Amino acid sequence: MDDYVRSVEAALFAANGPLSLDDIALYAGEGDVAAALASLADHYAGRGIELVERGGRWHFQTAPDLAHLLRREREEPRRLSRAATETLAIIAYHEPVSRAEIEAIRGVQISRGTLDVLMEAGWVRTAGRRESPGRPLTYATTADFLTHFNLGSRRDLPGIDDLKAAGLLDPLDEEALQLQLESGEDED
Fold first, then answer.
1. Number of domains present in the structure of the chain
2. Keywords assigned by UniProt (predicted)?
3. N or C: which end of the chain has fewer CB within 10 A?
4. Are 103 and 155 part of one and the same domain?
5. Which alpha helices (H) appear in the chain, and where do they start and end?
6. What are phi and psi of 93, to 5 degrees?
7. Res 74: pLDDT
8. Same domain, 62 and 86
């Protein structure tokens, strides 16, 4: 392993959180960061820790099949309210999105606390202001959201077919849909 790859490894190991390619270059100096990361990923493949990329940021993590060995206490899963879960899903699939747009999609108003909970968890951030009357704030997901849900990017979010297959969406009533289509044809 050459000195540059070792310096990239040291920067990633000592970092408080995931690093972008530019951050790594700041610590490790001039060199081929992508090649060094590829070398390290190969080196750590199949080991107790692995090098992973989430949302364009790199970090070491425990191999998923060994994570249970390091848990001394049972982790309490973070329970989100239904409103917070729906709001997070809307932001993830429609970002950047304003509060009014979230409320229009949900069909009900959201309390201020709902967005605060998501922001405190580090999963949602303000993404600027919309260029419309009142210049409302817009919201987007964070790199921590991608890391927590083990997503490489937003493109890895499940689609409707994936959600139906997992049983998370009610199957569409084919007969009712067919009746709707037939009644629409009669009107033409």
1. 2
2. Cell cycle, Cell division, Chromosome partition, Cytoplasm
3. C
4. yes
5. 3-14, 21-28, 33-44, 82-94, 99-106, 112-120, 143-148, 160-165, 174-187
6. -85, -20
7. 55
8. no
Residue 124 φ then ψ, to 5°: -130, 145
Q: Are residues 132 and 66 in the same domain?
A: no
Q: Is residue 179 part of a domain?
A: no
Backbone dihedral angles phi then psi of residue 126, each to the nearest 5 degrees: -75, 145
Query: pLDDT for 11-35, tens place per residue?
Result: 999 998 999 999 999 999 889 999 9
Which pLDDT tens digit goes with each residue over 53-67?
Answer: 998 999 999 888 887
Q: Are residues 153 and 96 in the same domain?
A: yes
Single residue among 70, 92, 115 that ends a domain in this structure: 70
The answer, as to whether pTM is greater than 0.70, is no
Q: Using CA atoms, how far apart are residues 168 and 8, in angstroms rounded to an integer?
A: 41
Q: pLDDT tens-digit profile of 35-52?
A: 999 999 999 998 999 999
Q: How far apart, in whole angstroms, are the C-alpha atoms of residue 153 and residue 145? A: 10
Q: Using the predicted structure, report yes or no on whether residue 151 has a pLDDT greater than 90.
A: no
The rounded radius of gyration (Å) of the Cα atoms in the chain is 22
